[in-house]
Amino acid sequence: MGELVLVERRDDGVAVVTLNNPKVNALSQALLAELYEVALDVTENPPGAVVITGGLRLLAAGADISEFGGADEGRAIGEGFHRALDAVAAIPRFVIAAVSGYALGGGCELALACDYRIVSERAVFGQPEVLLGIIPGGGGTQRLPRTVGRSRAKEMMITGRQVKAEEALRIGLADEVVPGDELLDRALTLAAEVAKGAAQAQALIKRAVDEGAETDLASGLALELELFEAVFHTDDSRIGVASFLESGPGSASFTGR
Fold it and tell me: Domain locations in the chain?
């Protein structure tokens, strides 16, 4: 849809979104504006699954520092990050971040906005904003503690320390670590597998988990009950139940409706 964010819709139902802002994929306001438009397009015309990557060298090394200024610029930059990354988080499909090399600052925040993070052995995460005398402004102070816990998130953000792949896996910041030359293939394989599934049920699962995590247990259970009823209005539920009764699990061919 633009020059800074490239989109490939594959025949297997996977959309690959690639950041394309050499040399370090700086998350400029122009790139974030394109990412927002891509996220809206993917939401309005959803594929089966989404992979977000920055290529083999890195995901993104953070915001474009040259755009920083005073408080007014800070507000505008923060709003640009929130709009784009909230839109990524709201995509009603399984969104996989394929992270090779650095995912720092806004790059880490982008990975956190995805549902699942597959990383290469050379991946490095961090929220080093404090080293510039500022704080994360693209969701890091909220999404990181929800992912790795409050204490670890505070330690990472207050020290600005970088976290390598194996530690990221251990603390839940990464979900899989693979050799660098296998990264994209693994992400695409998982995405293609997901894309063959019951898309409406997948979207409702994502909604139940994400919205339920932000409320109390009773409210989350009420939401689950509401969505459990809603899913039976889909074609895929009828196909899946009939296929199970006839052939057992794993044989259904879903339509995504």
Answer: 5-195, 199-247
Q: Do domains 5-195 and 199-247 have the same CATH topology?
A: no
CATH class, 5-195 region: alpha beta
The residue length of the chain stands at 257
Dump pLDDT digits (tens) for 230-253: 999 999 999 988 888 888 777 788
CATH class, 199-247 region: mainly alpha
Q: How far apart are the C-alpha atoms of 254 and 40, rounded to whole Å?
A: 24
Q: Which residue has the tokens 């809206």?
A: 40
pLDDT band for position 1 (50/70/90)? low
Measured distance CA(18)–CA(55) in Å, rounded: 7
Each residue of 22-43: b (16+ CB within 10 Å) or e?
eebbbbbbbbbbbbbbbbeebe
Structure tokens at 33: 């504006």
Give residue-wise pLDDT tens across range 123-171. 999 999 999 999 999 999 999 999 999 999 999 999 999 999 999 999 9
One DSSP character per residue, 61-87 reads --B-GGG--SHHHHHHHHHHHHHHHHH
Give catalytic residues, as residue numbers. Answer: 63, 106, 109, 129
Which residue carries 């490239």 as its tokens? 6
How far apart (Å, rounded) are the C-alpha atoms in residues 42 and 63?
A: 23
